[in-house]
UniProtKB/TrEMBL annotation, chain A:
TM helices/strands, residue ranges: 20-46, 67-91, 122-147, 159-181, 187-208, 249-271
Protein name: ABC transporter permease
Keywords: Membrane, Transmembrane, Transmembrane helix
Organism listed in the record: Agromyces bauzanensis
UniProtKB/TrEMBL annotation, chain B:
Protein name: ABC transporter ATP-binding protein
Highest classification ranks of the organism: Bacteria, Bacillati, Actinomycetota, Actinomycetes, Micrococcales
Family the UniProt entry places it in: Belongs to the ABC transporter superfamily.
Key word tRNA processing present: no
Domain ABC transporter: 7-231
InterPro entries attached to this UniProt entry: AAA+_ATPase, ABC_transporter-like_ATP-bd, P-loop_NTPase
Organism of origin: Agromyces bauzanensis
Amino acid sequence: MSLLRSIASEFQKVFTTRMWWLLALLLVGYVLVLAGGFGAFLGWAVRNPDAAAATGGNTGVPPGTELAPLIYTFASSIGYVFPVLLGALAVTGEFRHRTLTPTFLAEPHRSIVLGGKFVTQLVVGAGLGVAAFATSVGSGAAALAAFDFDTGLDQGDTWALIGRGVLAMALWGGIGVGLGALVPNQVAAIVIVIAFTQFVEPILRLAASFSDVTASIGRFLPGAASDALVGASFYSIMSTGSSSSLDWWQGGLVLLGIAVVATVIGGATTWRRDVT
Amino acid sequence: MAGGIPIMIEGLTKQFGPVTAVDDLSFTVEPGRVTGFLGPNGAGKTTTLRVLLGLVRATAGTATFGGTPYHDLPRPLETVGTALEATFHPGRTARHHLKVYATAAGLPAARVQQVLEMVGIAEFADRRVGGYSLGMRQRLSLAYTLIGDPGVFVLDEPINGLDPEGIKWIRGFLQALAREGRTVLVSSHLLSEVQQSVDDVVIISKGRLIKSGTLSSLELEAAPRTIVDSPDREKLSEALDEAGLAYTEGRGGFIVDEHDPGVVGRAAFLGGVELSALHRLKSGLEESFLTLVGGGEE
Ligand SMILES: Nc1ncnc2c1ncn2[C@@H]1O[C@H](COP(=O)(O)OP(=O)(O)OP(=O)(O)O)[C@@H](O)[C@H]1O
Ligand SMILES: [Mg+2]
């Protein structure tokens, strides 16, 4: 009962400030440009390989690759940073604005509050996922259709991929909550999200792909696990070691594990501190 | 409304690292009365209240509502209304702020509008709190205390930032709550700020209890003094000496250790001194408060 009330309250918290639509807008814009743009560029380059080579544009896409999944999954492969940010802000914002006081007065069981945030951000992450995939599929399919490529929208596999992508976005929301609970300082949490997703992890994944041993470790990196869950992605096609990636359900479990472990550790440490 | 429950602080100690903020503190706050929780800055008032509300963990001792810690109250917002230092998300409106917590506590959404009207901020309720004045924020804090119609009120410096009208309103409001049988604990670092509205006082300093009792018992200790002045101060001092009255010379005249101005007047009359002032020193209570807590600043 109190968990349900806490979830309802956390939903209201998300939707009564402007951050959610700001991030949703950025996400949609980002995915629109990349999925639509790359869709058009790849479509053109594959159709006109000579012209593409002449302009120095090497797509790096092996011949025979299906373009549709590659373009659609931009939604999660570049968009996952948004649910993480929103999830982290849901926790760090309480510290920053010192609203833990009214929050814990209304619900003194702190684990219920954190549980409510976790569930809420899973759902919000899924919502962002739906928005992102609607954008990538909409703009990507339009671009592909313009170059007379198969959009794949009549295939169950494509829709399964989209479903897994939405699930990945949901789990990233949970990871955000865990990160916020571990690092309650808002600025620090944001810096960690940006630095890790944009620099640290891509470099680690690239470095890990150079040997078999590191590659088998590297596939447990959250971004790699996420790509494994979703399936095709720009990154996994770019890196040669795509054969070593996890199964989709393993990828999902890795993401869920990171989210739960981070939230539980944060919940047992910073979340239990004195609120002064 | 839930009935008023006593607040019970027993052997409470709280240490922040090397700092002992609250030191073996015990007192009880009775229902049906307004209790002033007084002490100079840093005395440990806020810390005591935060321990009571389960926000800060006690190092030793207990702080309960009739034996039940806040954490174990089945319906906390309907039992205790709390206003600590006003904290809000600046981007959220007052109405949404209250709604978020009403939802968490399972309270009907209709309460939000009611309490907004009770504290007089209904017309600003759809503005973001970031643009609120200090007094409006204080009123929003008070709205939060009222949302569950609780039997116990815990208010930390609620008068800070209110305009004179707001101060008058809150004083009457606190007394009305107490008359309905509720428990009202209100902290302040100034006795004069709450003097007119409290029935009981709990005075602490450096985390320790200095005094707890009724306001009138403090008034007795206050030993009000008399101010007397004359165009001829020399003659007046002779007259006071003659009558055996102890006094000190202040800027506005002599401060006599005597609560009855009549006695001083008679001494002057017997000495044939013309008086330009004769009245009771009004700040006796505040002074005795300052004496109790060690002169305030050191
Ligand atoms: N989080 C904290 N960490 C370290 N020391 C603290 C902390 N909170 C309070 N203190 C210390 O505890 C003591 C009591 O502080 P508290 O805020 O309870 O006093 P107060 O009576 O409310 O004062 P004021 O009238 O200024 O509000 C002070 O010495 C303060 O510095
Ligand atoms: Mg204080």
